[in-house]
Write a structure and sequence with these properties.
Layout (H helix, E strand, L loop, with lengths): L2 H14 L25 E3 L9 E10 L2 E2 L4 E6 L19 E6 L5 E7 L10 E7 L6 E7 L6 H5 L10 E4 L2 E2 L5 E4 L2 E2 L6
Parallel strand pairs: 1-6, 2-11, 2-12, 8-9
Antiparallel strand pairs: 2-3, 2-6, 4-5, 4-7, 7-8, 10-11
Length: 192
């Protein structure tokens, strides 16, 4: 399954039916997408030997501005060639670049990786499967807003993000050449 096509379907569904905006495709509810209890809040997805520019993502899980501790985050993305796997199938469900984390007592998380490349004409992005007791599970994406993909939307004065699953954030490059971006995750209470 190509996640980009799936995300587009979720975005179309969320635009048509706002109550479904927090949908998560069933495959991403599998146990492998859940961080084990005691997982760290800081992880390395791609080590220094992985080709590509370094990228550090930081953020917090929040419930109306209050930090949420212990949130499971499964972060995954394509490599510098826009591939999730190197087996010829390019399955995002078996991405080789991933990490499982849990937010700390202040709701914070951090991971270090490489800047991915977009595929199928899309901008570079990182997927997050976000789950926590008492909250709706979500599949949400961090899109890198400095990509040329967003130029037509900027020029037209349109919002960059679409729906409840797509979050566009513009990274900055520090003096050491490392890209940095902050992506806070707003948790959605489960009313069931």
């Amino acid at each position: 399954m190509r996640l980009a096509v799936l995300i587009v379907c979720v975005l179309v569904a969320s635009a048509a039916r706002p109550q479904d905006a927090e949908l998560i495709p069933a495959p991403y509810l599998a146990p492998k997408y859940l961080a084990p209890p005691g997982a760290p809040s800081n992880a390395v997805i791609a080590g220094r030997s992985e080709p590509g520019d370094r990228l550090i993502v930081t953020g917090r899980a929040l419930d109306q501005g209050r930090p949420v501790a212990g949130v499971s985050i499964y972060a995954f993305h394509a490599d510098v060639d826009g591939l999730y796997t190197r087996d010829g199938r390019n399955s995002d469900e078996n991405a080789r670049l991933f990490a499982t984390l849990r937010t700390d007592a202040d709701g914070r998380y951090r991971y270090e990786t490489i800047r991915p490349r977009g595929y199928d004409g899309l901008a570079a992005h990182v997927h997050h499967v976000v789950t926590a007791a008492g909250y709706k599970p979500r599949l949400c994406d961090l899109w890198l807003g400095d990509e040329p993909y967003f130029t037509p939307r900027r020029n037209a004065g349109l919002p960059l993000s679409e729906g409840a699953a797509m979050f566009v954030r513009t990274p900055t490059r520090d003096p050491d050449g490392v890209w940095r971006v902050t992506h806070d995750l707003e948790m959605l209470r489960d009313s069931n």
